[in-house]
Task: inverse folding
Protein backbone atom coordinates (compact mmCIF):
# COMPACT_ATOMS: atom_id res chain seq x y z
CA UNK A 1 0.00 0.00 0.00
CA UNK A 2 2.81 2.39 0.89
CA UNK A 3 4.54 1.69 -2.39
CA UNK A 4 1.32 2.25 -4.31
CA UNK A 5 0.72 5.57 -2.49
CA UNK A 6 4.23 6.74 -3.27
CA UNK A 7 3.69 5.86 -6.93
CA UNK A 8 0.43 7.80 -7.03
CA UNK A 9 2.13 10.84 -5.42
CA UNK A 10 4.87 10.80 -8.04
CA UNK A 11 2.31 10.48 -10.82
CA UNK A 12 0.33 13.39 -9.37
CA UNK A 13 3.42 15.54 -9.07
CA UNK A 14 4.40 14.72 -12.63
CA UNK A 15 0.92 15.61 -13.83
CA UNK A 16 0.97 18.82 -11.86
CA UNK A 17 4.32 19.80 -13.37
CA UNK A 18 3.05 19.11 -16.88
CA UNK A 19 -0.13 21.12 -16.29
CA UNK A 20 1.83 24.05 -14.81
CA UNK A 21 4.31 23.98 -17.69
CA UNK A 22 1.69 24.13 -20.42
CA UNK A 23 -0.23 26.86 -18.58
CA UNK A 24 2.99 28.91 -18.34
CA UNK A 25 3.69 28.20 -22.03
CA UNK A 26 0.31 29.65 -23.04
CA UNK A 27 0.58 32.57 -20.61
CA UNK A 28 4.02 33.47 -21.96
CA UNK A 29 2.85 33.44 -25.59
CA UNK A 30 -0.24 35.50 -24.79
CA UNK A 31 2.07 38.05 -23.19
CA UNK A 32 4.16 38.10 -26.36
CA UNK A 33 1.20 39.84 -28.00
CA UNK A 34 1.19 42.44 -25.21
CA UNK A 35 4.95 42.93 -25.55
CA UNK A 36 4.66 43.37 -29.32
CA UNK A 37 2.07 46.12 -28.84
CA UNK A 38 4.27 47.88 -26.30
CA UNK A 39 7.44 47.60 -28.41
CA UNK A 40 5.58 48.92 -31.46
CA UNK A 41 5.04 52.21 -29.58
CA UNK A 42 8.66 53.09 -30.29
CA UNK A 43 8.22 53.05 -34.07
CA UNK A 44 7.09 56.71 -34.38
CA UNK A 45 10.41 57.81 -32.84
CA UNK A 46 12.41 56.09 -35.58
CA UNK A 47 13.76 57.87 -38.64
CA UNK A 48 12.12 56.98 -41.96
CA UNK A 49 13.06 53.53 -43.29
CA UNK A 50 14.25 53.97 -46.87
CA UNK A 51 15.14 50.40 -47.87
CA UNK A 52 13.22 47.15 -48.10
CA UNK A 53 15.77 45.38 -45.90
CA UNK A 54 15.32 47.98 -43.14
CA UNK A 55 11.53 47.62 -43.27
CA UNK A 56 11.80 43.83 -43.27
CA UNK A 57 14.12 43.90 -40.27
CA UNK A 58 11.69 46.08 -38.32
CA UNK A 59 8.73 43.86 -39.23
CA UNK A 60 10.61 40.81 -37.97
CA UNK A 61 12.20 42.48 -34.96
CA UNK A 62 9.00 43.64 -33.26
CA UNK A 63 7.47 40.17 -32.73
CA UNK A 64 10.88 38.52 -32.30
CA UNK A 65 11.97 40.95 -29.59
CA UNK A 66 8.56 40.71 -27.89
CA UNK A 67 9.01 36.93 -27.86
CA UNK A 68 12.47 37.29 -26.31
CA UNK A 69 11.24 39.62 -23.58
CA UNK A 70 8.43 37.23 -22.73
CA UNK A 71 10.81 34.27 -22.56
CA UNK A 72 13.06 36.15 -20.15
CA UNK A 73 10.11 37.13 -17.95
CA UNK A 74 8.93 33.51 -17.86
CA UNK A 75 12.29 32.07 -16.76
CA UNK A 76 11.76 32.44 -12.98
CA UNK A 77 8.42 30.64 -13.17
CA UNK A 78 9.92 27.96 -15.43
CA UNK A 79 12.53 27.24 -12.76
CA UNK A 80 9.75 26.99 -10.18
CA UNK A 81 7.91 24.49 -12.40
CA UNK A 82 11.02 22.33 -12.34
CA UNK A 83 11.52 22.37 -8.57
CA UNK A 84 8.10 23.17 -7.07
CA UNK A 85 5.26 22.60 -9.57
CA UNK A 86 2.56 24.21 -7.48
CA UNK A 87 0.15 25.86 -9.90
CA UNK A 88 -0.86 28.69 -7.57
CA UNK A 89 2.78 29.52 -6.78
CA UNK A 90 3.75 29.32 -10.45
CA UNK A 91 0.81 31.55 -11.39
CA UNK A 92 1.65 34.15 -8.72
CA UNK A 93 5.30 34.30 -9.74
CA UNK A 94 4.44 34.51 -13.45
CA UNK A 95 1.95 37.33 -12.98
CA UNK A 96 4.43 39.22 -10.83
CA UNK A 97 7.26 38.82 -13.37
CA UNK A 98 5.17 40.00 -16.31
CA UNK A 99 3.68 42.89 -14.33
CA UNK A 100 7.20 44.09 -13.57
CA UNK A 101 8.19 43.73 -17.22
CA UNK A 102 5.16 45.62 -18.54
CA UNK A 103 5.56 48.42 -15.98
CA UNK A 104 9.27 48.67 -16.84
CA UNK A 105 8.45 49.00 -20.56
CA UNK A 106 5.82 51.66 -19.82
CA UNK A 107 8.29 53.70 -17.77
CA UNK A 108 10.92 53.24 -20.47
CA UNK A 109 8.43 54.44 -23.08
CA UNK A 110 7.89 57.67 -21.14
CA UNK A 111 11.60 58.23 -20.60
CA UNK A 112 12.46 57.52 -24.22
CA UNK A 113 9.72 59.78 -25.58
CA UNK A 114 11.15 62.70 -23.60
CA UNK A 115 14.88 62.08 -23.67
CA UNK A 116 15.62 59.51 -26.40
CA UNK A 117 17.43 57.07 -24.16
CA UNK A 118 16.25 53.89 -22.49
CA UNK A 119 16.34 52.80 -18.88
CA UNK A 120 19.92 51.81 -18.18
CA UNK A 121 22.60 51.90 -15.50
CA UNK A 122 22.76 55.69 -15.72
CA UNK A 123 19.04 56.05 -15.01
CA UNK A 124 19.20 53.58 -12.13
CA UNK A 125 22.12 55.51 -10.64
CA UNK A 126 20.13 58.73 -10.80
CA UNK A 127 17.09 57.11 -9.24
CA UNK A 128 18.98 55.40 -6.42
CA UNK A 129 21.13 58.48 -5.89
CA UNK A 130 18.12 60.67 -5.15
CA UNK A 131 18.11 62.50 -8.48
CA UNK A 132 14.98 60.95 -9.98
CA UNK A 133 13.78 64.42 -10.98
CA UNK A 134 16.67 64.65 -13.43
CA UNK A 135 14.96 61.95 -15.50
CA UNK A 136 11.21 62.29 -14.98
CA UNK A 137 9.89 64.96 -12.61
CA UNK A 138 6.81 63.57 -10.84
CA UNK A 139 3.95 65.92 -10.11
CA UNK A 140 0.94 64.83 -8.06
CA UNK A 141 -1.05 64.28 -11.24
CA UNK A 142 1.73 62.21 -12.77
CA UNK A 143 1.89 60.02 -9.67
CA UNK A 144 -1.86 59.46 -9.83
CA UNK A 145 -1.68 58.47 -13.50
CA UNK A 146 1.14 56.05 -12.75
CA UNK A 147 -0.82 54.48 -9.88
CA UNK A 148 -3.82 53.91 -12.16
CA UNK A 149 -1.64 52.42 -14.90
CA UNK A 150 -0.03 50.02 -12.41
CA UNK A 151 -3.47 48.82 -11.30
CA UNK A 152 -4.56 48.34 -14.92
CA UNK A 153 -1.42 46.31 -15.64
CA UNK A 154 -2.00 44.05 -12.62
CA UNK A 155 -5.64 43.53 -13.57
CA UNK A 156 -4.72 42.81 -17.19
CA UNK A 157 -2.10 40.21 -16.27
CA UNK A 158 -4.52 38.50 -13.90
CA UNK A 159 -7.08 38.26 -16.72
CA UNK A 160 -4.44 36.78 -19.04
CA UNK A 161 -3.52 34.27 -16.34
CA UNK A 162 -7.18 33.19 -16.10
CA UNK A 163 -7.55 33.02 -19.88
CA UNK A 164 -4.44 30.82 -20.21
CA UNK A 165 -6.20 28.15 -18.15
CA UNK A 166 -9.41 28.10 -20.20
CA UNK A 167 -10.07 25.06 -22.42
CA UNK A 168 -10.84 27.13 -25.54
CA UNK A 169 -7.45 28.87 -25.25
CA UNK A 170 -5.73 25.51 -24.93
CA UNK A 171 -7.05 24.61 -28.41
CA UNK A 172 -5.00 27.41 -30.04
CA UNK A 173 -1.94 25.93 -31.86
CA UNK A 174 0.59 27.47 -29.47
CA UNK A 175 3.33 25.00 -30.45
CA UNK A 176 3.22 26.21 -34.06
CA UNK A 177 3.17 29.83 -32.88
CA UNK A 178 6.22 29.16 -30.71
CA UNK A 179 8.10 27.65 -33.66
CA UNK A 180 7.14 30.58 -35.91
CA UNK A 181 8.34 33.13 -33.34
CA UNK A 182 11.58 31.21 -32.85
CA UNK A 183 12.17 31.30 -36.62
CA UNK A 184 11.46 35.06 -36.65
CA UNK A 185 13.96 35.53 -33.85
CA UNK A 186 16.62 33.57 -35.71
CA UNK A 187 15.97 35.42 -38.99
CA UNK A 188 16.04 38.89 -37.39
CA UNK A 189 19.35 38.15 -35.70
CA UNK A 190 20.80 36.74 -38.93
CA UNK A 191 19.83 39.90 -40.80
CA UNK A 192 21.43 42.05 -38.09
CA UNK A 193 24.65 40.02 -38.19
CA UNK A 194 24.85 40.70 -41.92
CA UNK A 195 23.91 44.38 -41.58
CA UNK A 196 26.33 45.05 -38.72
CA UNK A 197 29.23 43.55 -40.67
CA UNK A 198 28.27 45.17 -43.97
CA UNK A 199 27.50 48.66 -42.69
CA UNK A 200 23.76 48.71 -43.42
CA UNK A 201 23.00 51.64 -41.14
CA UNK A 202 19.30 51.62 -41.99
CA UNK A 203 19.10 48.36 -40.06
CA UNK A 204 21.66 48.83 -37.31
CA UNK A 205 20.39 52.27 -36.27
CA UNK A 206 17.03 50.71 -35.36
CA UNK A 207 18.60 48.86 -32.45
CA UNK A 208 18.78 51.87 -30.15
CA UNK A 209 15.06 52.55 -30.47
CA UNK A 210 13.79 49.22 -29.12
CA UNK A 211 14.09 48.68 -25.35
CA UNK A 212 16.73 46.22 -24.16
CA UNK A 213 17.32 45.09 -27.76
CA UNK A 214 20.69 43.41 -28.26
CA UNK A 215 20.70 41.49 -31.54
CA UNK A 216 23.68 39.33 -32.44
CA UNK A 217 26.86 40.57 -34.14
CA UNK A 218 29.67 38.51 -35.65
CA UNK A 219 32.01 40.85 -37.47
CA UNK A 220 35.07 38.63 -37.28
CA UNK A 221 33.18 35.66 -38.70
CA UNK A 222 31.53 37.75 -41.42
CA UNK A 223 34.87 39.31 -42.30
CA UNK A 224 36.31 35.85 -42.89
CA UNK A 225 33.64 35.16 -45.48
CA UNK A 226 34.18 38.54 -47.14
CA UNK A 227 31.42 40.69 -45.62
CA UNK A 228 32.91 43.81 -44.02
CA UNK A 229 32.66 47.56 -44.26
CA UNK A 230 34.19 50.66 -42.79
CA UNK A 231 30.82 52.11 -41.85
CA UNK A 232 31.93 55.31 -40.18
CA UNK A 233 31.50 54.11 -36.61
CA UNK A 234 33.17 56.20 -33.95
CA UNK A 235 34.95 54.46 -31.10
CA UNK A 236 36.23 56.45 -28.17
CA UNK A 237 38.91 55.46 -25.73
CA UNK A 238 37.15 55.23 -22.40
CA UNK A 239 39.50 53.28 -20.17
CA UNK A 240 43.06 53.57 -18.92
CA UNK A 241 44.57 56.06 -16.54
CA UNK A 242 44.20 59.78 -16.97
CA UNK A 243 47.06 61.93 -18.12
CA UNK A 244 45.49 65.21 -17.05
CA UNK A 245 47.11 67.66 -17.39
CA UNK A 246 49.53 66.49 -20.06
CA UNK A 247 52.38 68.32 -18.33
CA UNK A 248 52.70 69.99 -14.95
CA UNK A 249 51.24 73.46 -14.97
CA UNK A 250 53.68 76.29 -14.50
CA UNK A 251 53.30 78.09 -11.19
CA UNK A 252 50.57 80.74 -11.32
CA UNK A 253 51.81 84.30 -11.41
CA UNK A 254 51.88 85.97 -8.01
CA UNK A 255 50.40 89.32 -7.08
CA UNK A 256 46.94 90.30 -5.98
CA UNK A 257 44.24 88.35 -7.78
CA UNK A 258 40.62 89.36 -8.30
CA UNK A 259 37.72 87.62 -6.64
CA UNK A 260 35.86 85.12 -8.81
CA UNK A 261 32.12 84.54 -8.60
CA UNK A 262 30.28 81.95 -10.69
CA UNK A 263 26.47 82.14 -10.67
CA UNK A 264 24.87 79.17 -12.40
CA UNK A 265 21.12 78.79 -12.92
CA UNK A 266 19.73 75.35 -13.66
CA UNK A 267 18.06 74.99 -17.10
CA UNK A 268 18.65 78.63 -18.12
CA UNK A 269 17.76 78.98 -21.79
CA UNK A 270 19.86 81.32 -23.90
CA UNK A 271 16.80 83.13 -25.28
CA UNK A 272 15.17 83.88 -21.93
CA UNK A 273 17.41 86.72 -20.75
CA UNK A 274 15.25 89.80 -21.25
CA UNK A 275 13.90 92.80 -19.27
CA UNK A 276 10.62 91.03 -18.41
CA UNK A 277 11.78 87.55 -17.48
CA UNK A 278 15.15 88.31 -15.89
CA UNK A 279 15.46 92.09 -15.36
CA UNK A 280 18.47 91.86 -12.99
CA UNK A 281 20.42 89.43 -15.15
CA UNK A 282 19.52 91.42 -18.25
CA UNK A 283 20.82 94.63 -16.66
CA UNK A 284 23.97 92.78 -15.63
CA UNK A 285 24.43 91.58 -19.22
CA UNK A 286 24.40 95.17 -20.48
CA UNK A 287 27.53 95.94 -18.46
CA UNK A 288 29.27 92.64 -19.22
CA UNK A 289 30.94 90.75 -22.02
CA UNK A 290 27.95 88.83 -23.32
CA UNK A 291 28.71 85.62 -25.23
CA UNK A 292 25.51 85.16 -27.22
CA UNK A 293 26.53 82.14 -29.30
CA UNK A 294 27.45 79.97 -26.35
CA UNK A 295 26.84 76.25 -25.80
CA UNK A 296 27.09 74.19 -22.65
CA UNK A 297 29.42 71.20 -22.57
CA UNK A 298 26.47 68.91 -21.88
CA UNK A 299 22.71 68.58 -22.18
CA UNK A 300 22.36 67.73 -18.48
CA UNK A 301 23.63 69.15 -15.19
CA UNK A 302 26.39 66.62 -14.68
CA UNK A 303 28.19 67.34 -17.92
CA UNK A 304 27.39 71.05 -18.09
CA UNK A 305 29.02 71.70 -14.72
CA UNK A 306 31.82 69.23 -15.42
CA UNK A 307 32.86 70.88 -18.68
CA UNK A 308 32.62 74.35 -17.15
CA UNK A 309 35.11 73.59 -14.37
CA UNK A 310 37.39 71.08 -16.09
CA UNK A 311 37.38 72.36 -19.66
CA UNK A 312 37.31 68.81 -21.06
CA UNK A 313 34.75 66.64 -22.81
CA UNK A 314 32.10 64.57 -21.08
CA UNK A 315 33.76 61.25 -21.94
CA UNK A 316 36.41 61.97 -19.28
CA UNK A 317 33.81 62.14 -16.49
CA UNK A 318 33.83 58.46 -15.61
CA UNK A 319 37.60 58.19 -15.17
CA UNK A 320 37.87 61.50 -13.33
CA UNK A 321 35.15 60.31 -10.96
CA UNK A 322 36.91 56.98 -10.50
CA UNK A 323 40.16 58.76 -9.61
CA UNK A 324 38.33 61.54 -7.70
CA UNK A 325 40.51 64.11 -9.43
CA UNK A 326 39.52 67.73 -8.67
CA UNK A 327 39.21 70.44 -11.28
CA UNK A 328 42.51 72.16 -12.01
CA UNK A 329 40.69 75.47 -11.67
CA UNK A 330 40.08 74.69 -8.00
CA UNK A 331 43.59 73.32 -7.47
CA UNK A 332 45.23 76.43 -8.90
CA UNK A 333 42.96 78.70 -6.86
CA UNK A 334 44.07 76.86 -3.74
CA UNK A 335 47.73 77.42 -4.63
CA UNK A 336 47.04 81.14 -4.92
CA UNK A 337 45.42 81.28 -1.47
CA UNK A 338 41.81 81.78 -2.52
CA UNK A 339 39.14 81.17 0.12
CA UNK A 340 36.11 79.25 -1.10
CA UNK A 341 32.39 79.90 -0.79
CA UNK A 342 30.56 77.08 -2.56
CA UNK A 343 26.77 77.26 -2.16
CA UNK A 344 24.58 74.88 -4.17
CA UNK A 345 20.84 74.52 -3.77
CA UNK A 346 20.85 70.88 -4.94
CA UNK A 347 23.18 68.45 -3.12
CA UNK A 348 26.74 68.36 -4.41
CA UNK A 349 26.70 64.61 -3.92
CA UNK A 350 24.26 63.88 -6.77
CA UNK A 351 25.76 64.33 -9.30
CA UNK A 352 29.04 63.57 -7.54
CA UNK A 353 30.65 67.00 -7.70
CA UNK A 354 31.98 66.39 -4.19
CA UNK A 355 34.11 63.61 -5.64
CA UNK A 356 35.08 65.43 -8.83
CA UNK A 357 35.05 69.23 -9.13
CA UNK A 358 35.37 69.99 -5.41
CA UNK A 359 37.04 66.81 -4.16
CA UNK A 360 40.13 68.67 -2.92
CA UNK A 361 38.02 71.03 -0.77
CA UNK A 362 35.21 68.62 0.07
CA UNK A 363 35.77 68.96 3.82
CA UNK A 364 35.70 72.76 3.63
CA UNK A 365 32.33 73.29 1.94
CA UNK A 366 28.69 72.46 2.66
CA UNK A 367 27.57 69.56 0.50
CA UNK A 368 23.89 70.40 0.98
CA UNK A 369 21.64 73.07 2.45
CA UNK A 370 18.38 72.79 4.34
CA UNK A 371 15.04 73.61 2.80
CA UNK A 372 11.72 71.93 2.04
CA UNK A 373 11.75 73.13 -1.57
CA UNK A 374 14.18 74.33 -4.21
CA UNK A 375 12.93 77.89 -3.60
CA UNK A 376 13.78 77.71 0.09
CA UNK A 377 17.20 76.30 -0.68
CA UNK A 378 17.79 78.98 -3.32
CA UNK A 379 16.98 81.66 -0.76
CA UNK A 380 19.31 79.99 1.73
CA UNK A 381 22.32 79.96 -0.59
CA UNK A 382 21.78 83.67 -1.29
CA UNK A 383 21.78 84.32 2.47
CA UNK A 384 24.93 82.26 2.92
CA UNK A 385 26.69 84.17 0.17
CA UNK A 386 25.73 87.48 1.76
CA UNK A 387 27.37 86.32 5.00
CA UNK A 388 30.41 85.04 3.12
CA UNK A 389 30.86 88.30 1.20
CA UNK A 390 30.65 90.32 4.41
CA UNK A 391 33.61 88.47 5.94
CA UNK A 392 36.67 90.66 6.14
CA UNK A 393 39.73 89.03 4.60
CA UNK A 394 42.77 90.04 2.62
CA UNK A 395 42.59 86.82 0.61
CA UNK A 396 40.60 86.78 -2.64
CA UNK A 397 37.55 84.55 -2.79
CA UNK A 398 36.30 81.96 -5.25
CA UNK A 399 32.56 81.50 -4.94
CA UNK A 400 30.08 79.29 -6.76
CA UNK A 401 26.29 79.69 -6.44
CA UNK A 402 24.06 77.13 -8.12
CA UNK A 403 20.30 77.92 -8.20
CA UNK A 404 17.93 75.00 -8.69
CA UNK A 405 14.31 76.26 -8.78
CA UNK A 406 13.97 76.19 -12.60
CA UNK A 407 14.81 72.48 -12.59
CA UNK A 408 11.45 71.80 -10.97
CA UNK A 409 9.76 74.94 -12.40
CA UNK A 410 9.19 76.36 -8.90
CA UNK A 411 8.27 79.96 -8.04
CA UNK A 412 6.15 81.79 -5.44
CA UNK A 413 2.46 81.76 -6.38
CA UNK A 414 1.51 84.62 -4.03
CA UNK A 415 3.40 87.37 -5.86
CA UNK A 416 2.78 89.19 -9.16
CA UNK A 417 4.04 87.06 -12.04
CA UNK A 418 5.42 88.26 -15.38
CA UNK A 419 3.64 85.36 -17.12
CA UNK A 420 0.23 84.69 -15.50
CA UNK A 421 -0.80 82.32 -18.31
CA UNK A 422 1.25 79.33 -17.17
CA UNK A 423 0.64 75.60 -16.79
CA UNK A 424 -0.67 75.02 -13.29
CA UNK A 425 0.60 71.45 -13.28
CA UNK A 426 3.68 69.94 -14.88
CA UNK A 427 2.86 66.46 -16.12
CA UNK A 428 5.60 65.25 -18.43
CA UNK A 429 3.50 62.27 -19.49
CA UNK A 430 1.04 64.66 -21.16
CA UNK A 431 3.65 66.32 -23.36
CA UNK A 432 3.50 65.41 -27.02
CA UNK A 433 3.81 66.81 -30.55
CA UNK A 434 0.44 68.57 -30.31
CA UNK A 435 0.96 70.08 -26.85
CA UNK A 436 0.92 73.86 -26.70
CA UNK A 437 4.38 74.68 -25.30
CA UNK A 438 3.66 78.27 -24.25
CA UNK A 439 2.06 77.58 -20.82
CA UNK A 440 4.93 75.27 -19.89
CA UNK A 441 7.56 77.71 -21.06
CA UNK A 442 5.76 80.48 -19.17
CA UNK A 443 5.94 78.40 -16.02
CA UNK A 444 9.69 78.04 -16.48
CA UNK A 445 10.04 81.78 -17.15
CA UNK A 446 8.24 82.54 -13.90
CA UNK A 447 10.79 80.36 -12.17
CA UNK A 448 13.60 82.23 -13.91
CA UNK A 449 12.04 85.45 -12.65
CA UNK A 450 12.15 84.22 -9.06
CA UNK A 451 15.82 83.20 -9.33
CA UNK A 452 16.58 86.50 -11.05
CA UNK A 453 15.48 88.23 -7.82
CA UNK A 454 18.00 86.13 -5.88
CA UNK A 455 20.74 86.95 -8.38
CA UNK A 456 19.85 90.63 -8.01
CA UNK A 457 20.46 90.31 -4.25
CA UNK A 458 23.87 88.74 -4.94
CA UNK A 459 24.90 91.58 -7.26
CA UNK A 460 23.63 94.15 -4.77
CA UNK A 461 25.67 92.45 -2.04
CA UNK A 462 28.80 92.88 -4.14
CA UNK A 463 28.00 96.57 -4.57
CA UNK A 464 27.19 97.09 -0.90
CA UNK A 465 30.39 95.39 0.24
CA UNK A 466 32.39 97.34 -2.37
CA UNK A 467 33.53 94.11 -4.02
CA UNK A 468 32.05 94.50 -7.48
CA UNK A 469 35.02 96.34 -8.99
CA UNK A 470 37.45 93.67 -7.81
CA UNK A 471 35.35 90.64 -8.73
CA UNK A 472 35.11 88.81 -12.04
CA UNK A 473 31.54 87.52 -12.26
CA UNK A 474 30.30 84.73 -14.52
CA UNK A 475 26.54 84.19 -14.95
CA UNK A 476 25.38 81.20 -16.97
CA UNK A 477 23.33 77.99 -16.96
CA UNK A 478 24.25 74.32 -16.81
CA UNK A 479 22.08 73.43 -19.83
CA UNK A 480 18.95 74.63 -21.61
CA UNK A 481 15.39 73.32 -21.70
CA UNK A 482 13.43 72.39 -24.81
CA UNK A 483 9.71 72.70 -25.49
CA UNK A 484 9.39 70.93 -28.83
CA UNK A 485 11.13 73.96 -30.34
CA UNK A 486 12.48 71.96 -33.28
CA UNK A 487 9.13 70.27 -33.90
CA UNK A 488 10.55 66.80 -33.31
CA UNK A 489 8.96 65.94 -29.99
CA UNK A 490 11.88 66.83 -27.72
CA UNK A 491 10.95 68.18 -24.29
CA UNK A 492 13.09 69.12 -21.32
CA UNK A 493 16.77 68.27 -21.48
CA UNK A 494 19.01 65.22 -21.72
CA UNK A 495 17.21 64.11 -24.88
CA UNK A 496 18.93 65.90 -27.75
CA UNK A 497 21.89 68.17 -28.37
CA UNK A 498 19.97 71.01 -30.03
CA UNK A 499 20.65 74.63 -29.20
CA UNK A 500 17.46 74.62 -27.15
CA UNK A 501 18.85 71.99 -24.80
CA UNK A 502 22.53 72.96 -24.95
CA UNK A 503 22.32 76.71 -25.55
CA UNK A 504 22.86 78.85 -22.45
CA UNK A 505 23.76 82.50 -21.92
CA UNK A 506 27.21 83.42 -20.65
CA UNK A 507 27.94 86.88 -19.24
CA UNK A 508 31.31 87.85 -17.83
CA UNK A 509 31.66 91.11 -15.96
CA UNK A 510 35.39 91.74 -15.91
CA UNK A 511 36.46 95.05 -14.38
CA UNK A 512 38.43 97.02 -16.91
CA UNK A 513 37.26 95.10 -19.98
CA UNK A 514 34.03 97.00 -20.64
CA UNK A 515 30.90 95.55 -22.22
CA UNK A 516 30.43 93.96 -25.62
CA UNK A 517 28.33 91.30 -27.33
CA UNK A 518 30.35 88.39 -28.76
CA UNK A 519 28.72 86.44 -31.61
CA UNK A 520 31.42 83.84 -32.32
CA UNK A 521 30.90 80.27 -31.16
CA UNK A 522 32.04 79.58 -27.59
CA UNK A 523 31.70 76.73 -25.11
CA UNK A 524 31.61 76.03 -21.39
CA UNK A 525 34.92 74.27 -21.98
CA UNK A 526 36.45 77.69 -22.69
CA UNK A 527 35.93 78.90 -19.13
CA UNK A 528 38.67 76.81 -17.48
CA UNK A 529 41.40 78.10 -19.87
CA UNK A 530 40.13 81.64 -19.28
CA UNK A 531 40.34 81.36 -15.50
CA UNK A 532 43.58 79.36 -15.37
CA UNK A 533 45.37 81.31 -18.08
CA UNK A 534 43.93 84.83 -18.11
CA UNK A 535 43.16 85.22 -14.40
CA UNK A 536 45.66 82.97 -12.65
CA UNK A 537 48.48 83.61 -15.13
CA UNK A 538 49.43 80.00 -15.89
CA UNK A 539 51.49 80.04 -19.09
CA UNK A 540 50.86 76.51 -20.33
CA UNK A 541 48.87 76.37 -23.56
CA UNK A 542 45.25 75.43 -22.94
CA UNK A 543 45.77 72.21 -24.91
CA UNK A 544 47.87 70.92 -21.97
CA UNK A 545 44.78 70.76 -19.76
CA UNK A 546 41.66 71.54 -21.77
CA UNK A 547 39.71 70.82 -24.93
CA UNK A 548 38.69 74.48 -25.01
CA UNK A 549 40.40 77.80 -25.57
CA UNK A 550 40.29 81.14 -23.80
CA UNK A 551 37.05 83.03 -24.24
CA UNK A 552 39.19 85.91 -25.48
CA UNK A 553 41.04 83.85 -28.08
CA UNK A 554 39.76 85.21 -31.38
CA UNK A 555 40.57 82.02 -33.29
CA UNK A 556 37.30 80.88 -34.92
CA UNK A 557 35.86 77.62 -33.59
CA UNK A 558 34.95 75.08 -36.25
CA UNK A 559 32.90 73.17 -33.70
CA UNK A 560 32.36 72.59 -29.99
CA UNK A 561 31.45 69.36 -28.25
CA UNK A 562 28.29 68.67 -26.24
CA UNK A 563 28.40 65.47 -24.22
CA UNK A 564 26.16 63.07 -22.39
CA UNK A 565 26.54 59.63 -20.81
CA UNK A 566 27.25 57.48 -23.84
CA UNK A 567 26.73 59.84 -26.75
CA UNK A 568 27.83 63.28 -27.85
CA UNK A 569 27.42 65.90 -30.55
CA UNK A 570 29.78 68.13 -32.46
CA UNK A 571 28.08 71.48 -32.98
CA UNK A 572 29.20 73.93 -35.64
CA UNK A 573 27.61 77.13 -36.80
CA UNK A 574 25.24 75.29 -39.13
CA UNK A 575 25.56 71.60 -38.37
CA UNK A 576 25.31 68.98 -35.64
CA UNK A 577 27.07 65.64 -35.90
CA UNK A 578 25.52 63.31 -33.32
CA UNK A 579 27.27 60.10 -32.29
CA UNK A 580 24.83 57.64 -30.75
CA UNK A 581 25.53 55.00 -28.07
CA UNK A 582 25.72 52.33 -30.79
CA UNK A 583 28.49 54.23 -32.56
CA UNK A 584 26.19 55.25 -35.40
CA UNK A 585 26.30 58.83 -36.65
CA UNK A 586 23.40 61.18 -37.31
CA UNK A 587 23.92 64.35 -39.33
CA UNK A 588 21.70 67.33 -38.61
CA UNK A 589 21.54 70.91 -39.80
CA UNK A 590 21.76 74.03 -37.65
CA UNK A 591 18.07 73.69 -36.72
CA UNK A 592 18.68 70.11 -35.60
CA UNK A 593 16.77 68.58 -38.48
CA UNK A 594 18.15 65.46 -40.21
CA UNK A 595 20.47 66.35 -43.07
CA UNK A 596 23.36 65.07 -45.15
CA UNK A 597 26.99 65.10 -43.99
CA UNK A 598 29.04 68.10 -45.04
CA UNK A 599 32.76 68.66 -45.36
CA UNK A 600 32.72 70.66 -42.14
CA UNK A 601 30.87 68.01 -40.17
CA UNK A 602 33.17 65.22 -41.34
CA UNK A 603 36.26 67.29 -40.62
CA UNK A 604 34.98 67.95 -37.11
CA UNK A 605 34.51 64.22 -36.55
CA UNK A 606 38.15 63.52 -37.31
CA UNK A 607 39.34 66.35 -35.04
CA UNK A 608 37.13 65.15 -32.20
CA UNK A 609 38.87 61.78 -31.99
CA UNK A 610 42.13 63.35 -30.83
CA UNK A 611 40.35 65.57 -28.34
CA UNK A 612 38.49 62.69 -26.72
CA UNK A 613 41.60 60.61 -26.29
CA UNK A 614 44.07 63.39 -25.48
CA UNK A 615 44.01 63.07 -21.70
CA UNK A 616 44.08 59.29 -21.46
CA UNK A 617 47.43 57.58 -20.95
CA UNK A 618 48.63 56.11 -24.23
Result:
Amino acid sequence: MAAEGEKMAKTSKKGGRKEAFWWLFRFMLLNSLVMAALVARYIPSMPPLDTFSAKLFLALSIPAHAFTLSLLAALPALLMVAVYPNKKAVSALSVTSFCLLVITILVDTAVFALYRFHLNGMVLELLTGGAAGEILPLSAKTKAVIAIEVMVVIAGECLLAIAAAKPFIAKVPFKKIFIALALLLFTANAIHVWADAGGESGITRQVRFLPFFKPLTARKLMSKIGIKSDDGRVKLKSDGSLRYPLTDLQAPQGGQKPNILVVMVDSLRADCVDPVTTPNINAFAEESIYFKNHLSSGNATRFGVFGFFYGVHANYWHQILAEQKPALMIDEAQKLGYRFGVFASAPLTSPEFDRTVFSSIRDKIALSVKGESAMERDGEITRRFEEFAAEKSTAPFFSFLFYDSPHSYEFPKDKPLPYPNYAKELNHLDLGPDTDPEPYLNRLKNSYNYVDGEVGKVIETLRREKLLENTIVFITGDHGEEFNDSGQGFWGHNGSFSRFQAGVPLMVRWPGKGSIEVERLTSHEDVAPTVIGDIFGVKNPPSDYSNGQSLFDQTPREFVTIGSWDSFALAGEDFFTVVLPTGEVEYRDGNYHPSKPTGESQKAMVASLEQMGRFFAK
